[in-house]
Amino acid sequence: MEYAVASGIVIGLTGGVLLGYLAARAITRVLRRKSPHQRLMAGFVAVGFIAAIPAAFFPSFVVGGNIGGGWGAYVSESVGLGSIGVPLGIATGIATVLAVGLTIGAAMGGLIGYGVSIVLKKKSAA
After folding, report:
1. pTM, two decimal places
2. What is the DSSP string of 19-72?
3. Cα 113 from Cα 79, distance rounded (Å)
């Protein structure tokens, strides 16, 4: 059971970072079209994503792991499989909370970058 929980944690972390990265790419594509300084916008999204990693790491374990593990145990026991669903629930909970946290960080970085690009556009026009 220890290896199953550890593999659930690893899968959750990997999946959360992957889903957060895909969301950050989507945010970058949307905001780069509207920004006059496209490289600056992509840089701010990347910095927001990287800065959000430590901030989203702890809640992903505390909130995602606990809620996901409890959810996995409840579902697997109500089907009659015992506690086999706990690792799957832990992986799902950690991945979800981590992906949401990284997406919020990337979006915040993108909004800051968009504001900076507007200010730079006004300064260069003046």
Report:
1. 0.84
2. HHHHHHHHHHHHHHHH-S-HHHHHHHHHHHHHHHHHHHHHHIIIIIIHHHHHHH
3. 49
